[in-house]
Amino acid sequence: MSAVPPTAAAGESSSALSRRTFITTTTTAVAASGLVPGTSPLGVEPAAAAEVSPSGRVSLTVNGERHAAMIDNRTSLLDLLREQFGLTGTKKGCDAGACGACTVLVDGRRVNACLTLAVRLEGAKVTTIEGLAPGEGDDLHPLQEAFIEQDAFQCGYCTPGQIMSGIGCIREGHTGSPEEIREWMSGNICRCGCYVKIVKAVEQAAGGK
After folding, report:
1. Which tens digit of pLDDT belongs to each residue from 70-80?
2. What is the residue-wise DSSP string for the chain?
3. Which of 153, 155, 159, 203 has the fewest C-beta atoms lying within 10 Å of its C-beta?
């Protein structure tokens, strides 16, 4: 005699048949509709259907030299400087505008290069850390000298952005007190914690401007 009650065996058989019928019917319907993984309803391959990113030409002056480039319209000024112009002094930190490591001057104003679309800078004048030296040789900008004299850095990764922001702060006239300097440079983060010496360096350069 079978150990399984006839009603249970029949129920299981009916259930199994129902599952098989459902799977077969569904698979047939999907195949008929053309919605097979890896294809589109129109029969166009995904790679072929992908949109081509828009590109444009931009001309700008960087550190006194004229540059022109064809770029993806989504390219940031930071990536343009580092990857196409080879100016790696401008650092990529958070890439979200929160740390200030990528600070440069655009038409004399400090900006976060990671948040600035390069295609919008047609005709602009950009200054990076590489363009600060007043002449040839080992000459340094007064703020660069002040950073050395005040020992205002440790790892140095944030230093280019700190210096560029400091120059902007001086030009904007926000150096009336240590508190004012800290306020107007608060967007530049130093993970080594050299803030006291950075403020002293900016004060020193501002006093000799």
Report:
1. 999 999 999 99
2. --SS-HHHHHHHHHHHHHHHHHHHHHHHHHHHHT--TT--TT---HHHHSPPPPEEEEEEEETTEEEEEEEETT-BHHHIIIIIS--TTS--SSSSSSS-TTEEEETTEEEEGGGSBGGG-TT-EEE-GGG--SSSTT---HHHHHHHHTT--SS-SSHHHHHHHHHHHHHTT--SSHHHHHHHTTTS--TT--HHHHHHHHHHHHHT-
3. 155
